[in-house]
Protein backbone atom coordinates (compact mmCIF):
# COMPACT_ATOMS: atom_id res chain seq x y z
CA UNK A 1 0.00 0.00 0.00
CA UNK A 2 1.25 3.46 -0.89
CA UNK A 3 0.45 5.41 2.26
CA UNK A 4 1.32 8.64 0.45
CA UNK A 5 -2.09 8.35 -1.21
CA UNK A 6 -3.73 8.86 2.18
CA UNK A 7 -3.92 12.49 3.24
CA UNK A 8 -2.18 13.00 6.60
CA UNK A 9 -4.76 15.54 7.74
CA UNK A 10 -7.51 13.00 7.14
CA UNK A 11 -5.60 10.46 9.25
CA UNK A 12 -5.34 12.96 12.09
CA UNK A 13 -9.03 13.82 11.82
CA UNK A 14 -10.00 10.13 11.85
CA UNK A 15 -7.94 9.37 14.95
CA UNK A 16 -9.37 12.40 16.76
CA UNK A 17 -12.94 11.55 15.79
CA UNK A 18 -12.62 7.91 16.87
CA UNK A 19 -11.27 8.94 20.28
CA UNK A 20 -14.08 11.47 20.66
CA UNK A 21 -16.65 8.88 19.64
CA UNK A 22 -15.38 6.47 22.27
CA UNK A 23 -15.33 9.19 24.94
CA UNK A 24 -18.94 10.16 24.23
CA UNK A 25 -20.56 6.83 23.37
CA UNK A 26 -18.40 4.10 24.93
CA UNK A 27 -19.99 0.76 25.75
CA UNK A 28 -19.69 -0.22 29.39
CA UNK A 29 -18.63 -3.87 29.16
CA UNK A 30 -17.28 -5.48 32.34
CA UNK A 31 -14.23 -6.94 30.56
CA UNK A 32 -13.04 -3.46 29.64
CA UNK A 33 -12.38 -2.84 33.33
CA UNK A 34 -10.19 -5.91 33.83
CA UNK A 35 -6.64 -5.39 35.06
CA UNK A 36 -5.50 -9.03 35.02
CA UNK A 37 -3.65 -9.81 31.79
CA UNK A 38 -4.60 -13.46 32.20
CA UNK A 39 -8.30 -12.63 32.39
CA UNK A 40 -7.99 -10.26 29.43
CA UNK A 41 -6.40 -13.07 27.40
CA UNK A 42 -9.15 -15.51 28.32
CA UNK A 43 -11.88 -12.97 27.64
CA UNK A 44 -10.57 -12.39 24.13
CA UNK A 45 -10.61 -16.15 23.53
CA UNK A 46 -14.16 -16.72 24.73
CA UNK A 47 -15.53 -13.67 22.92
CA UNK A 48 -14.38 -15.04 19.55
CA UNK A 49 -17.36 -15.58 17.22
CA UNK A 50 -19.69 -14.42 19.99
CA UNK A 51 -22.15 -11.56 20.30
CA UNK A 52 -20.74 -9.67 23.29
CA UNK A 53 -24.10 -8.23 24.39
CA UNK A 54 -25.56 -11.74 24.72
CA UNK A 55 -22.92 -13.05 27.12
CA UNK A 56 -22.38 -10.08 29.41
CA UNK A 57 -24.49 -11.72 32.15
CA UNK A 58 -22.53 -14.99 32.02
CA UNK A 59 -18.96 -13.78 32.15
CA UNK A 60 -18.69 -13.13 35.90
CA UNK A 61 -18.79 -16.81 36.85
CA UNK A 62 -16.16 -17.62 34.26
CA UNK A 63 -13.82 -14.87 35.48
CA UNK A 64 -14.32 -15.93 39.10
CA UNK A 65 -13.49 -19.57 38.38
CA UNK A 66 -10.55 -18.81 36.10
CA UNK A 67 -9.03 -15.75 37.74
CA UNK A 68 -5.48 -17.16 37.42
CA UNK A 69 -3.91 -19.83 35.19
CA UNK A 70 -3.35 -21.95 38.29
CA UNK A 71 -7.04 -21.81 39.29
CA UNK A 72 -8.02 -22.53 35.69
CA UNK A 73 -6.11 -25.82 35.80
CA UNK A 74 -8.15 -26.94 38.82
CA UNK A 75 -11.49 -26.51 37.03
CA UNK A 76 -12.59 -29.81 35.44
CA UNK A 77 -12.91 -29.57 31.67
CA UNK A 78 -16.57 -30.65 31.77
CA UNK A 79 -17.38 -27.91 34.26
CA UNK A 80 -15.56 -25.40 32.10
CA UNK A 81 -17.57 -26.52 29.07
CA UNK A 82 -20.78 -25.92 31.02
CA UNK A 83 -19.71 -22.44 32.12
CA UNK A 84 -18.74 -21.57 28.55
CA UNK A 85 -21.91 -22.91 26.93
CA UNK A 86 -23.54 -19.46 26.50
CA UNK A 87 -20.46 -18.26 24.61
CA UNK A 88 -20.66 -20.88 21.86
CA UNK A 89 -18.01 -23.41 20.77
CA UNK A 90 -17.78 -24.41 24.44
CA UNK A 91 -15.90 -27.68 23.90
CA UNK A 92 -13.25 -26.10 21.67
CA UNK A 93 -12.83 -23.10 23.94
CA UNK A 94 -12.69 -25.18 27.16
CA UNK A 95 -9.94 -27.43 25.81
CA UNK A 96 -8.06 -24.46 24.39
CA UNK A 97 -8.21 -22.54 27.67
CA UNK A 98 -6.97 -25.53 29.67
CA UNK A 99 -4.08 -26.01 27.25
CA UNK A 100 -3.17 -22.33 27.40
CA UNK A 101 -3.23 -22.41 31.20
CA UNK A 102 -0.83 -25.37 31.17
CA UNK A 103 1.57 -23.57 28.82
CA UNK A 104 1.49 -20.31 30.80
CA UNK A 105 2.12 -22.17 34.07
CA UNK A 106 4.76 -24.60 32.82
CA UNK A 107 6.59 -22.38 30.34
CA UNK A 108 6.26 -18.90 31.82
CA UNK A 109 5.69 -19.49 35.54
CA UNK A 110 2.06 -18.40 35.43
CA UNK A 111 2.82 -14.99 33.88
CA UNK A 112 1.41 -14.04 30.48
CA UNK A 113 4.33 -12.68 28.41
CA UNK A 114 4.38 -9.15 27.02
CA UNK A 115 5.62 -10.42 23.68
CA UNK A 116 3.53 -10.81 20.52
CA UNK A 117 5.55 -13.71 19.09
CA UNK A 118 5.33 -15.67 22.34
CA UNK A 119 1.60 -15.01 22.62
CA UNK A 120 1.09 -16.33 19.10
CA UNK A 121 2.62 -19.65 20.16
CA UNK A 122 -0.54 -20.27 22.20
CA UNK A 123 -3.28 -22.38 20.54
CA UNK A 124 -5.97 -20.26 18.91
CA UNK A 125 -4.03 -17.03 19.36
CA UNK A 126 -3.34 -15.08 16.18
CA UNK A 127 -2.78 -11.45 15.31
CA UNK A 128 -6.09 -10.22 16.71
CA UNK A 129 -5.87 -11.79 20.18
CA UNK A 130 -2.14 -11.18 20.57
CA UNK A 131 -2.58 -7.51 19.62
CA UNK A 132 -5.61 -7.24 21.92
CA UNK A 133 -3.60 -8.58 24.86
CA UNK A 134 -0.68 -6.30 24.05
CA UNK A 135 -3.03 -3.32 23.91
CA UNK A 136 -5.64 -3.97 26.62
CA UNK A 137 -3.37 -5.97 28.92
CA UNK A 138 -0.05 -4.18 28.62
CA UNK A 139 -1.01 -0.81 27.17
CA UNK A 140 1.14 -1.24 24.06
CA UNK A 141 0.23 0.86 21.03
CA UNK A 142 -1.28 -1.93 18.92
CA UNK A 143 -4.39 -1.95 16.75
CA UNK A 144 -6.70 -4.95 17.01
CA UNK A 145 -7.57 -5.76 13.41
CA UNK A 146 -10.56 -7.84 12.35
CA UNK A 147 -13.26 -7.62 9.67
CA UNK A 148 -15.06 -4.91 11.64
CA UNK A 149 -11.96 -2.75 12.02
CA UNK A 150 -11.19 -3.19 8.34
CA UNK A 151 -14.75 -2.26 7.34
CA UNK A 152 -14.63 1.03 9.26
CA UNK A 153 -11.18 2.04 8.03
CA UNK A 154 -11.54 1.04 4.38
CA UNK A 155 -14.86 2.89 4.17
CA UNK A 156 -13.58 6.01 5.88
CA UNK A 157 -10.40 6.31 3.82
CA UNK A 158 -11.88 4.98 0.59
CA UNK A 159 -9.36 2.17 0.21
CA UNK A 160 -9.72 -1.38 -1.03
CA UNK A 161 -7.49 -4.39 -0.61
CA UNK A 162 -6.52 -6.70 -3.49
CA UNK A 163 -6.97 -9.64 -1.13
CA UNK A 164 -10.17 -11.69 -1.17
CA UNK A 165 -9.81 -11.75 2.61
CA UNK A 166 -8.41 -8.33 3.54
CA UNK A 167 -7.53 -9.42 7.07
CA UNK A 168 -4.58 -11.30 5.52
CA UNK A 169 -3.35 -8.19 3.69
CA UNK A 170 -0.09 -7.25 5.42
CA UNK A 171 0.03 -3.81 3.82
CA UNK A 172 -3.45 -2.99 5.08
CA UNK A 173 -2.58 -4.44 8.49
CA UNK A 174 0.53 -2.26 8.68
CA UNK A 175 -1.44 0.84 7.66
CA UNK A 176 -4.02 0.23 10.40
CA UNK A 177 -1.23 -0.29 12.94
CA UNK A 178 0.25 3.06 11.91
CA UNK A 179 -2.97 4.84 12.86
CA UNK A 180 -2.80 4.03 16.58
CA UNK A 181 -2.21 7.23 18.58
CA UNK A 182 0.56 7.03 21.17
CA UNK A 183 -0.80 6.37 24.65
CA UNK A 184 -4.41 6.09 23.44
CA UNK A 185 -4.47 2.56 22.06
CA UNK A 186 -7.35 1.34 24.23
CA UNK A 187 -9.60 4.30 23.43
CA UNK A 188 -8.75 4.03 19.72
CA UNK A 189 -9.51 0.31 19.48
CA UNK A 190 -12.64 0.43 21.59
CA UNK A 191 -13.86 3.42 19.58
CA UNK A 192 -13.57 1.50 16.31
CA UNK A 193 -15.12 -1.62 17.85
CA UNK A 194 -18.11 0.35 19.14
CA UNK A 195 -18.54 2.32 15.90
CA UNK A 196 -18.51 -0.89 13.87
CA UNK A 197 -21.07 -2.49 16.19
CA UNK A 198 -23.55 0.33 16.56
CA UNK A 199 -23.16 2.40 13.37
CA UNK A 200 -20.73 1.21 10.68
CA UNK A 201 -22.30 -2.21 10.27
CA UNK A 202 -22.68 -4.36 7.18
CA UNK A 203 -25.78 -2.28 6.54
CA UNK A 204 -24.42 1.04 7.83
CA UNK A 205 -26.39 3.73 9.61
CA UNK A 206 -24.50 6.53 7.92
CA UNK A 207 -26.93 9.29 8.82
CA UNK A 208 -26.40 8.51 12.50
CA UNK A 209 -22.61 8.48 12.19
CA UNK A 210 -20.73 11.26 13.95
CA UNK A 211 -17.65 10.87 11.72
CA UNK A 212 -19.46 10.89 8.36
CA UNK A 213 -18.33 14.40 7.37
CA UNK A 214 -14.90 13.19 6.27
CA UNK A 215 -15.87 9.60 5.43
CA UNK A 216 -15.20 8.61 1.81
CA UNK A 217 -17.93 5.96 1.85
CA UNK A 218 -20.57 8.46 2.96
CA UNK A 219 -19.38 11.10 0.52
CA UNK A 220 -19.06 8.63 -2.37
CA UNK A 221 -15.42 9.41 -3.02
CA UNK A 222 -13.51 7.19 -5.44
CA UNK A 223 -11.87 4.10 -3.99
CA UNK A 224 -8.08 3.79 -3.77
CA UNK A 225 -6.95 0.26 -4.69
CA UNK A 226 -4.11 -1.00 -2.50
Q: Which residues form runs of ≥5 with pLDDT under 50?
A: none
Estimate the helix proportion, in percent: 55-70%
What is the tally of beta strands?
A: 2
Largest sheet: 2 strands, parallel
Question: SSE order, as H and E?
Answer: HHHHHHHHHHEHHHE
State the distance separating the first and last CA atoms.
5 Å
For the residues shown, what is the average pLDDT?
92
Number of helices: 13
Helix and strand composition category: mainly alpha
Strand order of the largest sheet: 1-2
Estimated share of beta-strand residues: under 5%
Please describe what this structure looks like.
The protein is mostly helical and 226 residues long. It is 55% helix and 2% strand. It is built from 13 helices and two strands. The protein has helices at residues 8-25, 37-46, 52-55, 59-65, 69-74, 77-84, 90-108, 116-119, 127-137, 147-157, 170-178, 185-198, 216-219; strands spanning 159-160, 224-225. Strands 1-2 form a two-stranded parallel sheet. α1 crosses α12 (185-198), α2 packs antiparallel against α9 (127-137) and α10 crosses α12. It is elongated, with a radius of gyration of 18 Å.
Question: What's the arrangement of secondary structure elements?
Answer:
Blueprint: H1 8-25, H2 37-46, H3 52-55, H4 59-65, H5 69-74, H6 77-84, H7 90-108, H8 116-119, H9 127-137, H10 147-157, E1 159-160, H11 170-178, H12 185-198, H13 216-219, E2 224-225
Amino acid sequence: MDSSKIDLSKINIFVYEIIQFYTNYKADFIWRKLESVWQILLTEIILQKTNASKVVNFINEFLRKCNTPYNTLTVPTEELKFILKPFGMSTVKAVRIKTIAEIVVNKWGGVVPCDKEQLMQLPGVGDYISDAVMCFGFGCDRAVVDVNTIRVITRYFGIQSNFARPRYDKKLYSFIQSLVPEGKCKEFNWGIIDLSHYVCRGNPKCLNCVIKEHCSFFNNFSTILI
